[in-house]
Design brief:
6-stranded parallel beta sheet; alpha/beta; Rossmann fold; 12 strands; oxidoreductase activity; cobalamin biosynthesis; Cobalt-precorrin-6A reductase
Length: 265
């Protein structure tokens, strides 16, 4: 048998810092023919160094059809840790394709932190209690609805794009900003708005972690939505490890014997 094509067609499901880093690595490596797929949550995504598309696939069947029609040979899911449905769709659609999940480690509290873990945003809204508080919401636009049901607090909402007005709690302030945020910036934000509690998701990573350190310094409690249960799929923590995995897939396709060590989580 002869060798197959010298390049490996890769579909990268993105929208995260890790996906952007991996896209840059793939752009510089001639072994791969990558395509980046973005869900379209951000209204004006930054230009990417590899071919890219925006929008959904139409569920599992749509993704399966795309993979077949595009001749994809390896699928890398580097979506947000809370994009559980997309990860499930990727697993269901992959079939016999090589599939890798890139997922940054979750944050873990320090002894001085005052964290309140909750399973969802409904529980987070209830955890704020009845006494009026100044609350910083850094949770994304789709999770705001429960806080409309607890309007007694003053909300400061930080998001990449302005949320839809129908989702915003009455009287809330909107801050549009894109990370990474420095510790100095987060200190200033908490002081300027007299923040008394933060609500966030356990997204992990360094881009928005400084708010946790700033909260620790000021003794501010943080309501933290825990990650959904992770399906069993091969996974790595960053772009560099994903490139190693893709390199091994490419090598095996060329008749090499590079091992693929499963790391199920």
């Amino acid at each position: 048998m002869g060798k197959r094509s010298s390049t490996l067609r890769v579909l990268l499901l993105g929208g995260t810092t890790e996906a952007s880093a991996l896209a840059r690595l793939l752009a510089a490596d001639g072994r791969f023919e990558p395509t980046l797929s973005l869900a379209g949550v951000t209204r004006a995504p930054r230009p990417q160094p590899i071919p890219w598309r925006i929008g959904g696939f139409g569920g599992v069947e749509g993704l399966r059809r795309y993979l077949a029609e595009a001749g994809i040979e390896a699928l890398v899911d580097a979506t947000h840790p809370f994009a559980a449905q997309m990860t499930r769709h990727a697993i269901a659609a992959a079939g016999t394709l090589k599939l890798l999940r890139v997922e940054r480690p979750a944050w873990t509290p320090c002894p001085a932190d005052h964290w309140l873990p909750v399973p969802d945003m409904q529980a987070a809204a209830q955890a704020l209690g009845p006494a009026p508080r100044r609350v910083l919401l850094t949770i994304g636009q789709k999770e705001l609805a429960p806080f409309r049901e607890t309007p007694g607090h003053h909300y400061i909402i930080r998001s990449v794009d302005p949320p839809e007005p129908a989702l915003v709690p009455p009287g809330a302030e909107i801050i549009t900003a894109t990370g990474p945020f420095s510790l100095q910036e987060e200190r200033a934000l908490l002081a300027r708005h007299a923040i008394q509690v933060i609500v966030t998701k356990n997204s992990g990573g360094s881009a928005t972690a400084a708010k946790l350190a700033a909260a620790r310094e000021r003794g501010i409690p943080v309501v933290v939505m825990q990650r959904p249960s992770a399906p069993a799929v091969e996974r790595v923590a960053d772009a560099a490890a994903a490139m190693e995995w893709l390199g091994a897939v490419w090598e095996r396709g060329q008749g090499g014997a590079a091992p693929l060590e499963p790391r199920l989580g």
